[in-house]
Amino acid sequence: MNVPPITLALSKGRIFEETLPLLAAAGVRVREEPEHSRRLILPTTREGLRVVLVRATDVPTYVACGGADLGVAGLDTIIEHGGAGCYRPLDLRIARCHMAVAVPEGFDWQAAARAGRRISVATKFVRITREFFARRGMYINLIKLYGSMELAPLTGLADAIVDVVSSGQTLRANRLVEVAHVMDISAHLLVNQASLKLKSAELRPLIDAIASAIRSGSDAENPGV
Ligand code: ATP
Ligand code: MG
């Protein structure tokens, strides 16, 4: 019988690099280095499993619409997409960072809000930002950007930004300070809902293997726990 192919959508860079060890622990190696190849479809050592390389923000779309059976995407990206059509069975605990509100040093954003001023917030993460401020009863002017958010307060485009932060180095370099923690972020495994039913014989063992790879990774992080 023909085994249906399984397609895993990854994005180049951090998600790809940090997913590789999890795949390796699950017995899967990707046969080509994306940095040394222009190919967007990469074969793996597991028969019938291939990796496709797409933009990070496109991963949930590929999985939701069946262009891929599986995908790895940051929680930020998943929430912004909405996640309809995808199961999210595993927190992979990779590409960890957090979402934060940051303002120029010395700017009292809460005083501005108390004074009834509508602060302007620049971000690529429109849903998360609206939701965060709405929950606090704060009205904001939201400015959608596609990158380099930290430039917005420095040029007078916005009072504040909402962005992902890991070391905080980019904020410091631009004299911005974090004033609120919005949410913790890590990458999750996404699964197309129809695929999980139709290809469960192929998908379940792979998902289980990745789950044990994560567990042994976190045991190594917290020995004795
Ligand atoms: P692009 O850079 O192509 O515009 P992107 O910024 O969404 O897209 P990446 O920079 O590869 O893509 O980030 C992928 C995911 O990694 C993000 O969705 C986020 O969850 C996480 N991430 C982003 N920045 C960091 C960081 N500095 N440290 C750790 N994880 C991060
Ligand atoms: Mg990026």
Can you put this structure into words, describing what you see?
There is one protein chain. This protein is an alpha/beta fold and 225 residues long. 35% of the residues lie in helices and 31% in strands. The protein has helices at residues 14-25, 59-64, 75-81, 109-114, 126-135, 151-154, 169-173, 193-198, 200-221; strands at 6-10, 41-43, 49-53, 70-74, 86-104, 119-123, 140-144, 160-165, 176-192. Strands 2-3-1-4-9-5-8-6-7 form a nine-stranded mixed sheet. β6 (119-123), α5 (126-135) and β7 (140-144) form a beta-alpha-beta unit. The chain is elongated, with a radius of gyration of 20 Å. Adenosine-5'-triphosphate binds next to α1, α3, β5 and β9.
Can you describe this structure in just a few lines?
The chain is of the alpha/beta class and about 220 residues long. The chain has helices at about 15-25, 60-65, 75-80, 110-115, 125-135, 150-155, 170-175, 195-200, 200-220; strands at about 5-10, 40-45, 50-55, 70-75, 85-105, 120-125, 140-145, 160-165, 175-190. It contains 9 helices and 9 strands.
